[in-house]
Amino acid sequence: MSVAVIALLIGVPALAFTLWPVIGRRRGRRALLALAPDPREALLERKRQALRALRELEFEHGAGHLNDDDYADLRARYEAEAAEILRELDALGPEPAPAP
């Protein structure tokens, strides 16, 4: 009996917390922590991933896990991806000033 009560005490709030955003959107209300989509954030994350991949690639090559041909091909691919991301970031213009 006490296990069922404890499960209800924990389960009902957890279920309400999980379903709150879905219920709020159906009723036309704003989400609890709705943030405007910022394309700059997605591009900055892609940039971090590309740079991390280049660092890992350099490490793998230095450790002898990659031959020179594979290293050159992969490095060119990741550098091209990073350059494309930087072009997209430049196209967005300067970063907006943070709100006070």
Number of strands: 0
* Beta-strand content: under 5%
Q: How do the helices and strands follow one another from N- to C-terminus? A: HHH
**Sheet/helix structural class:** mainly alpha
Low-confidence stretches: none
Overall pLDDT:
84
Question: Over all CA atoms, what is the radius of gyration?
Answer: 23 Å
What gross morphology would you assign? flat
Helical content (DSSP H or I, runs of 4+): over 70%
The end-to-end span amounts to: 53 Å
Number of helices: 3
* Main sheet characteristics: none
What order do the helices and strands come in, and which of them pair?
Elements (H helix, E strand, L loop, with lengths): L1 H25 L12 H24 L5 H25 L8
Helix pairs in contact: 2-3
Brief summary:
The protein has 100 residues and is mostly helical. It has three helices and no strands.
What are its keywords?
flat, 3 helices, 100 residues
